Prior knowledge:
The chain is mainly beta. The chain starts with 44 loop residues before the first strand and ends in a 26-residue tail after the last helix. Pfam families: Vps62.
Amino acid sequence: MFGCDCFYWSRGISELDSESSEPKPFSLPAPLPSWPQGKGFATGRISLGEIEVVKITKFHRVWSSDSSHDKSKRATFYRADDIPEGFHCLGHYCQPTDQPLRGYVLAARTSKAVNADDFPPLKKPVSYSLVWSADSEKNGGGYFWLPNPPVGYRAMGVIVTHEPGEPETEEVRCVREDLTESCETSEMILEVGSSKKSNGSSSPFSVWSTRPCERGMLSQGVAVGSFFCCTYDLSSERTVPDIRCLKNLDPTLHAMPNLDQVHAVIEHFGPTVYFHPEEAYMPSSVQWFFKNGALLYRSGKSEGQPINSTGSNLPAGGCNDMDFWIDLPEDEEAKSNLKKGNLESSELYVHVKPALGGTFTDIVMWIFCPFNGPATLKIGLFTLPMTRIGEHVGDWEHFTFRICNFSGELWQMFFSQHSGGGWVDASDIEFVKDNKPAVYSSKHGHASFPHPGMYLQGSSKLGIGVRNDVAKSKYIVDSSQRYVIVAAEYLGKGAVIEPCWLQYMREWGPTIAYDSGSEINKIMNLLPLVVRFSIENIVDLFPIALYGEEGPTGPKEKDNWEGDEMC
């Protein structure tokens, strides 16, 4: 598939047998510590203003799909168990059957301080609409019901029964509309056959996880943990019309960790970062980079200016106006020394921010490498190291671990990979010791991955693209010890003093235009005669950054500084 704007990352992980037993609960390798004293972090319940919510992780299985007629993997559907007295279910939970049981749904109650008898925050549905049903000898009946809310209220999720009779309205609660936000589909969990409609057309029954449409550290949307299902095509519209997510209207974000708790969380969960055993371009601290010869250039001036160790003489604020950039010194020995980096000085720069309306905390760890080395291309069975393509000065990479503010446990990790990346559930993370995950940094490019191996950026089907090789080695950075918190805006002004260099919004390296013609010719000469690609086809298969790059910007200029991670 040529001209595709997205790239497929493949580890070649074998799938579990679709007929495996029901999911087994997952737990972290080690117990959680006692966190330092605070307000609402890890207390089990979170106030969203007029309603209070609790996370339910104990479930009772209701129904599992039958793989004999599924287009995708099997899925299992659950109702919440052990809901605390006074709290009410908002919807049921589902997940793929071949994954460890690792999920939640929120249950809610009206906050004690609220007196709204005429227009309470929560109400029973008026009735239900049957969305879809299935019956099989192996798994029995599965009936999917969408709550029909009273006027001024919205449904939060779908419920599943194993009997054809309409459920009791006591089963679930709907939420007053002003306490909700729009949500969208996230991951497809199940797709089953085709469902005939009254007009004669057909479409598959599909089940999706959901998330708030607006996400980021300033957004109020709270994921309920329930799912959405339908019998119509959702491919052109991600926004879900029939259900909503919650909204956190408590401005105090009382469930977020205080500074002492943040340090404790990092010391408990901080990942170990492994660099490739053949890595030639190591990370360093920003201060080491400045002290050892990095220069600030300005448009129209031929000579660079030395940078203070704190970055205090860098232009601060504004935006990337392309007027300033950082580059290596002209002296070849100093330049070579700077390119190599300095592992001993390196440290993780931490940004702490609310996620999903303050029900989770994102701990974003930025790592700086003075130089990004040349790419290595894979052409079928051939591997071709480039001499210049892929090189640039000033490489900022990051990974994020997401902490559940209900319990204080590690929930997910985001591994950033060349302007993309993906979330990995805690159940699929490699743990080095106790609850400390492993992060693998790719050779020369420093992208982050959850497991060792070779990851291909390009066409996995054709075996053509950029290699990302990751492996364990003696070159490590322990982020639980070597870190500096550089920003945590939610704690208020002055709680964390941001370094001067963080306010530098311009480029950390010069713009590069590669003369890639000769290297592309090498690629063409390596291709077998049976594979006939035009030069345009080859160009389309590789990331555009291989043919030239603007200088990379710093952390605060990235979209994920305020926004959610981009997959």
